[in-house]
Amino acid sequence: MSILGALQQHWAAQSLERRFAIAVSLVIGLSMVTLGYWVERRIRSGWEQGMAEIGAHYLEAFLAPHILDLEQADTLSEDSKRRIKALVTDSRLGQRVTMIKIWNRAGKLVYSTGKAREGTQVPLQPPLLARLMNGQVVVLTQSDSHGDEQPAQRLLESYAPIYKPGTGTILAIGEFYEVSHSLDREIQQLRYATWFLILNVAIIIGFLLYLTIRRASRIISSQQSQLEANLARASALAKRNNMLRRAADRARLDAAVSNEVYLARIGADLHDGPIQMLSLLMLRLPDEPPELRAQLERLIQQTLAELRNLSAGLVLPEIRDFSPADTIEAAIKRHEQQTGTGVARDLAELPEQMPEAIRFCAFRVVQEALMNAYKHAQGRGQRVATRFAAETLEIVISDDGPSRGVPLAQPSQQRPRLGLQGLETRVKALRGSLAITPQPEGGLLLRALLPVRRRSLTTKVE
């Protein structure tokens, strides 16, 4: 693992409060160091400029009377040079100013208390010269005296214009080197005071920010704990709801299967009860008078036909062990056998297993839709198509509608209808949908969608 990765892991392992404290310390520290350095530089620059200007006025008062020669000439007389040198060597001025140079208005050196040669050009850039000629003082802090031997100490190098006494005429440019011991002491004291103030401000700011973020961190931690507790409760509720939903699904499927079993029992009871009684009654009809026997026989035959049709419609064939495709095929074949009509098929590949409730409902949908097509369209253009996609079984039954001049099927030839409303109730009980739409060329199209969960495909409802 790289060093950067290790640092990132270590950083991520820290608490929010500690990470903020480290970040704030770094930011405030760098900001305060930058501010302190900038303030120190500004203070030093201001103090140096102020001392240079004071020194320039002080030297001007001493030198101006001795450089009047430069008003008429470009050099100083020997007498003027001796008087200037005496100012540095024989007075208290020499304790503060270590060297003096005088440059004429053309920028040529005319006198130096050091070893610089006369006639050399002033070592200043044109912008600095322009400032001097405008009456400003230029300050350079250094220990170099441009070739002159100087003590190993820090000097304040200043350039200032020297005016003719009582006028605003510039006679020369004075360069002098001033010992900055007192200035250094003042700046050093000011530096300590500045850094002390900045350090205290940084500590106060950091402490206040730390208290703020500490309180915020505790609030966040408390809210995070509450959110985690709420999330745990929500997760537990979600699991419980999921269990209840699965239980409701199983109950719904069980109810659908139980309904089919109940209908089968009703059909069996009709077959074993009223139908048997009516059949026995038919056997005893010969003992009755002929007129009454004919009338009763006709009524009994009609009643038997109705009961047999009702019983056959309620009882499903043995499809418990059928696959979904075989279940739909069984419904189609049963319709063809009962009505003597043909049904076109377009059965896509379906899963091998589905819950019994889904298969029973699919059987009823095909049975009822084809029976309606037989009743209302004489079975013209009967078609059954199936699809399975997105865990949904789609069943589409359509017909071409009735043809003109062809009588409808007789009631005695029809199976009792389960009813579209009852069929829709069956489908919706399995969370499906049923839609019936007319076709432009005639006839109706019934589309049923039955959702099938994958985890339910291998679960057989007993």
Compact summary:
The protein is an alpha+beta fold and 462 residues long.
Describe the structure.
The protein has eleven helices and ten strands. It is α+β, with helices and mostly antiparallel strands. The chain folds into three domains: 10-186, PAS domain (Beta-Lactamase, 2-Layer Sandwich); 273-315, no CATH class; 319-403 and 410-462, Heat Shock Protein 90 (2-Layer Sandwich), CATH 3.30.565.10. A hairpin with a 2-residue loop joins strand 7 and strand 8 (392-398). It is rod-shaped.
- N-to-C span: 58 Å
CATH topology of the largest domain: Beta-Lactamase
Number-wise, the strands total 10
CATH superfamily of the largest domain: PAS domain
CATH architecture of the largest domain: 2-Layer Sandwich
Strand content: 5-15%
Structural class given helices, strands, pairing?
alpha+beta
Name the average pLDDT.
76
- Uncertain segments: 143-147, 408-418, 455-462
What descriptors fit this protein?
alpha+beta, 10 strands, five-stranded antiparallel beta sheet, rod-shaped, 3 domains, 462 residues, 11 helices, five-stranded mixed beta sheet, Heat Shock Protein 90, Beta-Lactamase
Q: How would you summarize the topology of this molecule?
A:
Blueprint: H1 3-13, H2 16-63, H3 78-89, H4 93-96, E1 97-104, E2 109-112, H5 126-133, E3 138-142, E4 155-163, E5 170-179, H6 181-272, H7 274-283, H8 290-314, H9 324-339, E6 344-347, H10 356-377, E7 383-389, E8 392-398, H11 420-429, E9 433-438, E10 444-451
Parallel strand pairs: 6-7
Antiparallel strand pairs: 1-2, 1-5, 3-4, 4-5, 7-8, 8-10, 9-10
